[in-house]
From TrEMBL, chain A:
Protein name, entry field: Putative DNA modification/repair radical SAM protein
Gene3D superfamilies xref list: Aldolase class I (3.20.20.70), Photosystem II 12 kDa extrinsic protein (1.10.150.320)
Tree of life domain: Bacteria
Keyword Nucleotide-binding: no
Keywords: Iron, Iron-sulfur, Metal-binding, S-adenosyl-L-methionine
From TrEMBL, chain B:
Protein name, entry field: Type-4 uracil-DNA glycosylase
Organism: Lichenibacterium ramalinae
GO terms, molecular function: 4 iron, 4 sulfur cluster binding; deaminated base DNA N-glycosylase activity; metal ion binding
Lineage: Bacteria, Pseudomonadati, Pseudomonadota, Alphaproteobacteria, Hyphomicrobiales
Xref: InterPro entries: DNA_repair_put, DUF4130, UDG_Type-4/5, Ura-DNA_glyco_family4, Uracil-DNA_glycosylase-like, Uracil-DNA_glycosylase-like_sf
Keyword 4Fe-4S: yes
Keywords, sorted A to Z: 4Fe-4S, DNA damage, DNA repair, Hydrolase, Iron, Iron-sulfur, Metal-binding
Coiled coil: none
């Protein structure tokens, strides 16, 4: 095989990394001062998207695979061993150089490094850790580092990865163990879960140590995240969301990323060769938000699904409200925060604003309209100083009135 | 009419000093004209501080929120910004809670202006692109041309200082420039894009990255434009790629969908086989020699078998099977209910808060945990996810029965002198019947499975007690129970244990 130059390798290994949805550079504690003279980088805590691709996704980190050679044969993955895709491999030093070159020009917040499995999980993990170590120790790099963590790797390697990285992630890949068995025969749901559980214990421990002493070494201060592929194996939204609730509650994940299964060149038979279900992905994120920020139990969210699927035409909060009309209207001037969070059209910020303002003055419908972009939907579910929704809440066509057609475009 | 001319378009301090003096003197907003030097015909320093008073002077108060918003709004591009801020300052003297009323027109406007400045600042931190300039015999310099919407250069420059402290850099904007010489930040006059080199070799890598990280199957142009407005594109090296990428997206996607795989690499099958072999070797049981402490007599084999247990649905959500642990020749076997949060994560029984209490009580009762065996009636954690926590749920009879198999096999191997049932689920599994813990506590039941079973409470019962007094009493009782169990087991050396309790 001819040796590839850096540009060619970059093309192959960025292309191979694009199916990973995660891009966030947020969640880390802000840091400014370089550790050593000549060091570079800072973290603001809020994350910065330095560019956007025409797929609407943020480019915050240099997202690369160290190599797309892989000894596993996961059917949904473009890099599986049986795929005839072009292969490439970076040396750790090459990734370090690209990261620094990009960072110095303010293209990126840092590096997100993943890899195909080569030789063995331990060997691969060592290579990933090596890149992070070079960046931190040789170059005083203080930017963001996200390392993909290989669940079968030796715990010592994961410990080292946590020393250098801001965030670690282990992909659960598919919501059901049975799908994983079918589509990723070399991966085991139990191993993945155990690795995440171990990571959570380690994160808790590191947090405790930091609380006792500020000098205790940090361990992945931006926590752990994961990704699930949506639409590769006929799983239902309820499978996915139940799985997410398990992951959030058990492993304190910062994020579960949902990645609509995207057709891959030369895709394996038996996988859907169609446009990725982007609207479905969007609804899943909305449902995920309800669980994490709006005080919904996952059972409640799932109560508003049909046959375990979220309504593509309705955001899940509205779908829930339409099925629980007896709980409305809610009085914006008196209802407690938990109740306000249930109102379709009110986000967490608008709710907090309402609570601030109503201490001083009673709110009218117009006032609320200034706080939200969905005033039209909202009015059916609230009462205000000068407003009661009247019969509209019971109207059979309420659903039709607030329903907007889903914007899922077809292929052509 | 008074006129105040400020030194620069973002001269917040100048505005503050002048506004303070004017407001103290009760000069009404409509009597002042504000200008920044850049828009002013002549430069002169404001005389406002010495302006004659329009009434008895007053001392000013502003809420913290105003102090946060005003420096941002002072950088806004709106020529009315200083007059507007002064009007709010005056209103705040009569309406101190004004800023909490987000529905007020002025408040709405000040928030929107601050938001727009914040966004511009954020976009500047995102979209400045440095180009490297080689300098003979010195470290390279980095230059960038940027066109902000508002007067935010001074506001944003500290971000670049923090991040690129070790680099020498200059950001040129039409209105002003900021330079970092490695030690200090300097501001100077505005410039033009020609001052920045036309290219940088790394830009080709960046453009290669941009093209390849894009997924044509997910085209969402509006989402991109919302976050990366077109007005910024002219200074982004990657932006010229956008149009061709969009044009070719549909055909590239079709290619992704329609391209069948031509060949499977020849080595694939061999690699897969090798991988499977390596895994099998790793997961295989260790050679026959089984050590004492972690359970010989087949306990290890049993544990391995239990790891794959799917006898009930609990395995679907739990992290792992938490099997019993301890000495295979233990006299005492403790049976709890089920693993908790921490046990589930670590794969070991009784290591969470209840486990810590249990250990303490064992110690006080003179029982060495390492000489005992500790297990649970149910070996997977049953819980209800609630936000970021898992709430313990009592296992049902179905789960206890499904898991009974493992306890039965454990006890067959262990054959202890005495089994201690900690709580109702353990009684249920050991005797097959429901019994009230409180009424059978301290007694010995017989179990076809385990022989004599001594009953006491589960340590987590002690953790749930509401007041300290009952916690102390109950803890002492628990320790007493453990002592009694220890004594019973010791006496059992002579003859068999007699049942002292009956199931109700």
């Amino acid at each position: 095989m001819a040796r590839l130059d850096i540009t060619k390798k970059l093309a192959v290994l960025a292309d191979a990394a694009k199916y990973d949805a995660s891009c966030a550079s947020s969640g880390a504690k802000p840091r400014k001062e370089p550790v050593k003279a000549g060091g570079i980088g800072s973290i603001t805590g809020e994350g910065i998207c330095h560019s956007y691709a025409p797929d609407g996704r943020c480019i915050s980190l240099l997202k690369l695979l160290l190599t797309n050679h892989c000894i596993y044969d996961c059917l949904y993955c473009v890099n599986r061993v049986s795929s005839d895709v072009q292969r490439a491999r970076f040396t750790p030093e090459e990734v370090v150089q690209l990261t620094l070159d990009f960072y110095r020009r303010n293209y990126i917040e840092g590096l997100f490094l993943s890899s195909g499995i080569i030789r063995s999980p331990d060997y691969t993990m060592e290579q990933l850790v090596r890149v992070a170590q070079l960046l931190r120790e040789e170059h005083g790099f203080r930017g963001y580092i996200h390392l993909k963590t290989i669940p079968d790797a030796d715990p010592n390697l994961i410990e080292q990865a946590g020393r250098f990285a801001d965030r670690l992630s282990i992909n659960v890949e598919l919501p059901k163990a049975s799908s994983l068995e079918k589509l990723a025969p070399q991966k085991q749901a139990s191993t993945i879960r155990k690795a995440m559980g171990g990571l959570r214990l380690r994160l808790d421990e590191a947090e405790d140590e930091r609380r006792r002493s500020r000098r205790a070494p940090a361990f992945a201060p931006a926590g752990q995240s994961t990704q699930m592929i949506v639409g590769a194996d006929g799983e239902r939204d309820s499978d996915i969301l139940e799985s997410s609730a398990t992951l959030y509650s058990g492993y304190k994940l910062k994020r579960v990323y949902y990645s609509a299964y995207s057709p891959i060149p030369g895709s394996s038979q038996g996988l859907p060769a169609r446009k990725p279900p982007l609207m479905r992905e969007h609804r899943l994120y909305q449902a995920d938000w309800l669980y994490r920020y709006y005080g919904f139990a996952m059972d409640e969210v799932l109560g508003a699904t049909d046959g375990g699927m979220l309504d593509l035409d309705l955001d899940p909060k509205l779908a829930w409200a339409l099925r629980n009309r007896q709980r409305f209207p809610i009085d914006v001037n008196t209802a407690p925060r938990e109740e306000l969070l249930r109102v379709p059209g009110l986000g967490v910020r608008s709710v907090d604003r309402i609570i601030d303002i109503r201490r001083l003055t009673d709110l009218r419908l117009d006032d609320i309209a200034k706080l939200t972009r969905s005033a039209k939907t909202l009015r059916s579910f609230v009462t205000a100083l000068d407003w009661t929704p009247g019969a509209s809440l019971d109207g059979a066509h309420l659903a039709a009135a607030v329903k907007r057609p889903a914007e899922q475009l077809s292929l052509f | 009419m008074r006129e105040v001319v400020l030194r620069a378009p973002d001269d917040y301090e100048g505005w503050r000093d002048a506004a303070r003096a004017l407001a103290e003197a009760r000069v009404p907003p409509e009597a002042v004209v504000w200008r920044a030097a850049a828009d002013a015909p002549d430069l002169f320093v404001s005389e406002a501080a010495a302006a004659p008073s329009d009434g008895p002077s007053r001392s000013l108060r502003v809420p913290r929120r105003f102090a946060d918003l005003a420096p941002l709004v002072a950088c806004h591009g709106d020529p009315e910004r200083f007059a507007f801020l002064y009007r709010i300052l005056c209103r705040l003297q009569d309406e101190p809670r004004l800023l909490d009323i987000t529905t007020d027109e002025d408040v709405f406007r000040i928030e929107m202006m601050a938001k727009s400045v914040r966004r511009d600042r954020h976009k500047m931190t995102a979209f400045v692109r440095f180009r490297e300039v080689a300098v003979e015999g010195a470290p390279p310099a980095y230059l960038a041309w940027f066109e902000p919407e508002h007067h935010i250069l001074a506001l944003t420059a500290p971000f670049f200082v923090d991040r690129f402290r070790a680099m020498l850099w200059t950001i040129v904007t039409p209105e002003a420039r900021a330079s970092w010489d490695g030690a200090a930040l300097h501001f100077g006059p505005g410039g033009s894009p020609d001052e920045v080199p036309a290219e940088d070799a790394t830009e080709e890598h960046w453009r290669t990255y941009y093209v390849n990280i894009f997924n044509p199957a997910r085209l969402k142009v509006d989402a991109m434009k919302r976050e990366m407005p077109v007005k910024y594109w002219k200074n982004l090296p990657e932006a010229s790629l956008i149009a061709p990428l969009i044009r070719s997206a549909v055909s590239s996607e079709a290619r992704m969908v329609a391209t069948p795989q031509v060949t499977v690499p020849k080595r694939a099958a061999a690699i897969v086989a090798r991988t499977e072999e390596a895994r099998a070797a790793r997961d295989a049981p260790p050679p026959a020699a089984v050590s004492g402490a972690m359970g010989g007599n087949g306990l290890d084999a049993l544990r391995r078998e239990a790891l794959a247990c799917t006898r009930c649905d609990l395995h679907k959500f739990a992290t792992q099977t938490v099997f019993g642990e301890g000495l295979s020749t233990a006299d005492l076997v403790f049976v709890g209910e089920q693993p908790g949060d921490k046990e589930d994560l670590a794969g070991k029984p009784f290591i969470g808060p209840a486990g810590a209490l249990f250990d303490r009580a064992l110690g006080e009762a003179g029982i060495d945990r390492t000489r005992a065996y500790v297990t649970n009636a149910v070996k997977h954690f049953k819980f209800e996810p609630r936000g970021k926590r898992r709430i313990h749920k009592k296992p049902g009879v179905g789960e206890i029965n499904a898991c009974h198999h493992w306890l039965e096999e454990e006890l067959k191997i262990l054959r202890p002198k005495l089994t201690i049932a900690l709580g109702a689920s353990a009684i249920r599994s050991l005797t097959g019947q429901s019994a009230s813990v409180l009424s059978s506590r301290g007694t010995v039941l017989t179990s076809a499975l385990a022989g004599p079973v001594f009953v006491t409470v589960h340590p987590s019962f002690l953790l749930r007690l509401p007041d300290e007094a009952s916690q102390r009493t109950e803890y002492a009782r628990f320790v007493e129970d453990l002592r009694a169990a220890k004594a019973l087991a010791a006496n059992a050396d002579g003859g068999g244990l007699q049942a002292t309790g009956t199931l109700l």
